[in-house]
Amino acid sequence: MSSSQYHEASAEPNLTPMLDMVFQLVTFFMLVINFKSAQLDMNLKLPVVGSARPVDTKGQQDLLVLNINSAGMLTVYNTPRDVESYVAGEAQSSLLAARRQNPDLQAGDELPTTVVIRADRATPFHLLNRVIKACQDHGFRNFSLKAMNRQGDGPQADDPQNETSS
Q1: Using one digit for the tens of pLDDT, what is the confidence trace for 120-157?
Q2: What is the pTM for the complete model shown?
Q3: H helix or E strand, kind and range, residue 165
Q4: Per the domain annotation, does 30 fall within a domain?
């Protein structure tokens, strides 16, 4: 038998469709993941306010979420942070982002970011005021205080879906 009749067939798989599918799945999950929900500290017991409403961003999409526990400590992704240094860093990044829209914006001008404060109901006002003052010193002027919109002892009272602002 001649060797030309029995040459080995090359069987290399075509990986292009599989790589294309993997790329599409990675892209899909990157688009649907919600990083904002990771910012929320679910250990906080928010105050209950009957007149609370959803956050009004006035057309802005940039929000800075601050979780303040009952001791007045700022927690970011469940890690305690220094209020002054964290707010200063966020103000700098907000200023850089806002300069893309308005190049004339200077340090100290009002930043177009809404600060959403999620403070525990047991947080003394003087500790909460310290956080608000630090934000104001760095150019944040729009604030929203998070609260629960109904009183209750059941799980729905502490459900983050019931959070609103006052």
Answers
A1: 888 888 988 999 999 999 888 888 887 776 654 444 34
A2: 0.61
A3: strand 163-165
A4: no
How far apart CA 55 and CA 50 sit, in angstroms, is: 15
- Residue labelled with tokens 């990083």: 35
Whether 13 is in a domain gets the answer no
Q: How many domains does the chain have?
A: 1
Distance CA 131, CA 66 (A): 9
Tokens (6 digits) for 72 = 């007045």
Any residues with CB less than 8 A from the CB of 103 and at least 6 apart, and which? none
Tell me the CA end-to-end span of the chain in Å, nearest whole number: 90
Q: Is residue 15 part of a domain?
A: no
Domain of 141, in residue numbers: 36-165
